[in-house]
Design a protein that fits this description.
Length: about 350
């Protein structure tokens, strides 16, 4: 599965007023109390965000660092042109949990030589960590007390092969299957307890697999299927990616395949059980429609609703830039009690 280059947008709740220099977004409309504003940015084959809001973006084979305002600062490293016969396409860009390294994925035509590299965040040469056919997303979770990379993607050269999740083997490419899913390749996320969130875009479902089952699959137990999930919620549209903030609020993006502009960014509700257990925090407003691809949490380490940070969203149809979804009056946030949807009527806007 080839991931197309995307422009990066930021959806954020932060404890500061919206900067007046930023223009109102032409890409996403925030659902109150979220407000969207555009910030200059770049077009990335994958991106991630540091705790202080800097953007790490994969541009071609360059891994570039941008300020929180989207201003280019430096090239951290350049991955070698390992397949001169076919252009390498970026699929993801992910910081390690301690922020010391950046992992990036590439696919090539026919998925004949799809690779994953790491580079030091401080700068340096790239290391070929693994080869993984049809890689799409990468996240880190602990196995036996050590951080390990997990990858989603097709792991196949067959066009239309279903999505799956794997524990990456960086020694011999003997990757371990964690879960079989359906639909096209899509993103994954882990919460602080090690629960795995994954999408079946064919069945239009978002799953959470319990950490004990994930650990079992990672250490020799059977791989998982949708029926093994702790919960599943139906989705109106096909999901693309998932992220989790510092207190385990789960965010995801999804797209209307009719290209009608109905790309949405949503938060799961507490309890999750049942159909369509989420509320929208932003909706696409592009003239030709939006096609939301990657999302990431950054710019903070805690509760995105109460203490800042943001949900950064990449959108294929946009022409570049970063969109910040913020609460203009921080006092509004301070009055909210803990919990994902104590926002009540302010946040309630579901697809019907």
């Amino acid at each position: 599965m080839r991931k197309i280059l995307v422009s990066c947008f930021v959806l954020s709740v932060c404890a500061a007023a919206v900067p007046s220099a930023h223009a109102a977004s032409t890409v996403y409309q925030g659902v109150p109390p979220f407000k969207a504003t555009d910030i200059p940015g770049g077009v990335f084959g994958g991106f991630d965000v540091t705790a202080d809001g800097k953007i790490v973006g994969l541009v071609g084979r360059d891994i570039k660092l941008y300020s929180a305002a989207g201003v280019f600062e430096q090239i951290l490293a350049t991955v070698p042109d390992y397949n001169g016969a076919s252009l390498e396409y970026g699929s993801f860009c992910r910081l390690t949990p301690d922020g010391t390294d950046v992992w990036v994925g590439f696919t090539v035509g026919g998925n004949s030589d799809d690779r994953i590299y790491s580079v030091p965040f401080a700068g340096g040469s790239a290391t070929h960590e693994a080869t993984f056919t049809g890689n799409y997303d990468l996240e880190f979770a602990q196995v036996g007390g050590n951080w390990k990379p997990f990858v989603s993607g097709t792991h196949s050269t067959t066009f239309g092969a279903p999505n799956s999740v794997w524990l990456l083997d960086t020694a011999a490419d003997n990757h371990v299957k964690i879960a079989d899913l359906g639909g096209y390749a899509s993103g994954i996320a882990f919460d602080s307890a090690g629960n795995l969130y994954a999408i079946d875009s064919g069945l239009l479902k978002l799953y959470r697999f319990g950490s004990a089952r994930v650990q079992s699959a990672a250490t020799g137990g059977p791989s998982l299927v949708g029926d093994n999930a702790e919960f599943a919620t139906d989705m109106h549209f096909a999901g693309s990616d998932i992220t989790v903030d510092g207190v385990d609020h789960v965010f995801f993006n999804s797209n209307d395949p009719s290209y009608s502009g109905a790309s949405i960014v949503s938060m799961l509700q507490p309890g999750y059980a049942g159909s369509y257990k989420y509320d929208n925090i932003a909706e696409g407003i592009g003239g030709y429609g939006n096609w939301s691809t990657q999302i990431a949490f950054g710019g903070g380490t805690g509760d995105v609703l109460l203490v800042g940070g943001g949900i950064y969203v990449a959108d294929f149809w946009s022409s570049g830039g970063v969109t910040l979804l913020a609460v203009p009056e921080p006092a509004t946030v301070a009055l909210l009690s803990s919990g994902l949807f104590t926002l009540g009527a302010l946040m309630r806007r579901r697809m019907s």
